[in-house]
Structure formats: structure tokens, C-alpha cells
Amino acid sequence: QSALTQPASVSGSPGQSITISCTGTSSDVGDYNFVSWYQQLPGKAPKLMIYDVTRRPSWVSNRFSGSKSGNTASLTISGLQAEDEADYYCSSYTGSTTPYVFGTGTKVTVL
Amino acid sequence: QVQLQESGPGLVKSSETLSLTCTVSGDSISSYYWTWIRQPPGKGLEWIGYFHYSGNSIYNPSLKSRVTISTDTSKNHVFLKLSSVTAADTAVYFCARASYDNSPFDYWGQGILVTVSS
């Protein structure tokens, strides 16, 4: 099972919106609505931000939203803030012998 | 509030067995899928495997021959054993919880860095 493909880096100015893509295949992202997104601050554990493509845990700001089209899922951060600067990873359920696969990770920089 | 805490040796010699413990507090380890995930320094996340209290376990095929995940429900502990380690196994190891076999990882431990030395 290959890792999902994400851009290495995305940047934006405070207040702007940015979108991170996560491209898989018809066997993972394209076949299941079980895509999650995690935020990882330096030296910290990943934190769940989005699950089931579009759902937000109670602890996550509504500035974060998720979507999916075909084999590509996306995370959008609206009203970008300095505290959003982190690494972001997508993950998808695959239903295979490796039930979970992660993305390659995207470093978000707030200019 | 659910909390997970990894513990174990931070240094393991090459060819030996890596053994880690995840102590869960704030909830019983029954009814969940307890997962180990690792992250080599400066790299991305890799799913290692999970164990469900029913006895069901699934491992990453790339590690399957070397990994065992188990639990001690009396102590609320989740264990990871990885045998015949090499430098490629140097990573931060996280334990995490999933409610179902297709659900996200909603709680994570802080992680523990394990370095494999020659």
C-alpha cells in the first residue's frame, strides 16, 4: 500500500485560505469516506482535525474543513493564523491487509 | 479524559527486540482498537498495526513477521514488540486509539523516541 500524495509545502498570509490536497487511488481515498486529517506541531503527537472526509471533532475550529472528489481529498484552512503553522497528514482507510495509509505530509507556513 | 503514555527503553541494540508499553488512563482498553504508529526522524507516519480486545490483530505486512501487539486489560496496558530491529526502525513510536477498524485515531500518546544502535 503506497503512501497518499500530498504537496510538500503550502504557505499563506494571515487571514488567507489555503487548501492541502491528498491524492490516493480508487482502492483507498476513492473507495471509502474514511479520510482523516491530522495536525502535528513540532515535537508533538498528531492531533485529529477532520474525520470521515468532512466531520470535525468538538475541539477543532470551524476554520478547518474537509472535502473529497474522486481519489483526492482536501483540507482547507480559512482565516489562516500563526498557530496553524504545522505539519498536516491525511489518512485513509483502505479495507486491505494494511487498513490504514497515511499521506506524505505537508508543511504549512504562515508568512 | 482519556490519556495515553508510552514508556520503554530509548535505546535498543541492533538485532534485539524493541518493547514498549502504552498505559491508558481515563477509560478501559476494552472495546477499542489500540494502534501503534511510528515516525522516523524528519519523516512521515507509518501505521504499524492494531489490537482489539476481542483478540483480533492486524499488522502492516511490511512488519508483520517481526511485530506483536498485545494488551493487559487488568493494567490497562497495550504492548508493542518489534524483533530483529535495525537502524531503519529508529523512530518516534506513538500509541493511539480508534473506536472501530475504520475510524480515525482520536487519542494519541505523546510518543517515545527509540534509537537503534549498532
* Total number of helices of chain A: 0
Q: What radius of gyration of chain B results from the CA coordinates?
A: 13 Å
- Rounded to an integer in angstroms, the radius of gyration calculated over CA atoms of chain A is 13 Å
Number of strands of chain A: 9
| Proportion of beta-strand residues of chain A | 35-45%
Q: How would you spell out the order of helices and strands of chain A?
A: EEEEEEEEE
Low-confidence stretches of chain B: none
Q: Which pair of chains has the greatest number of interface residues, and how are they split between the two chains?
A: A-B, 26 and 20 residues
Average pLDDT score of chain B: 95
Helix share bin of chain A: under 10%
Q: Could you say which overall geometry of chain A the principal axes of the C-alpha atoms support?
A: globular
Shape of chain B from CA axes? globular
User: H/E element string of chain B?
Assistant: EEEEEEEEEEE
Distance between the termini of chain B: 40 Å
The SS-based structural class of chain B is mainly beta
Query: Major sheet of chain A: size, sense and barrel closure?
Result: 6 strands, mixed
**Structural class by secondary-structure content of chain A:** mainly beta
